[in-house]
Design brief:
Layout (H helix, E strand, L loop, with lengths): L2 E8 L5 H15 L5 E9 L4 E8 L2 H17 L5 E7 L2 H6 L6
Antiparallel strand pairs: 1-3, 1-4, 2-3
Length: about 100
């Protein structure tokens, strides 16, 4: 069963192309996380918020990543970090063409 990890936090930037250039190495490193399947990066430059929606193979691995990522963001002075983990209803998600693999 797959699990969604939703993370958001306040951030002064960068956003857009600058975010892509600044965080490319981080994005590549996320691909190496245990149980990681995919991530959608989220940003709202007007509200100064960023985050992401992740898919993990298990709840335990999503939780492990959330703890590590929260500590990393706190090291950059970003607090609070909001994180929630949800079980994916695969049947309904497939009806709506959601990527679950």
């Amino acid at each position: 069963m797959a699990y969604i990890l939703q993370v958001d936090f306040k951030m002064d930037g960068p956003f857009g192309k600058d975010m892509t250039e600044g965080f490319t190495d981080l994005a590549r490193s996320i691909n190496e996380e245990e149980g990681f399947i995919w991530k959608i990066w989220t940003e709202d430059s007007e509200a100064k918020e960023a985050g992401g929606i992740y898919l993990f193979e298990s709840k335990e691995l999503a939780q492990k990543y959330l703890v590590m990522h929260t500590d990393r963001l706190k090291g950059f002075g970003i607090e609070p970090v909001n994180g929630k983990i949800f079980e994916v209803n695969e049947g309904l998600t497939q009806i709506n063409n959601g990527p679950i693999k």
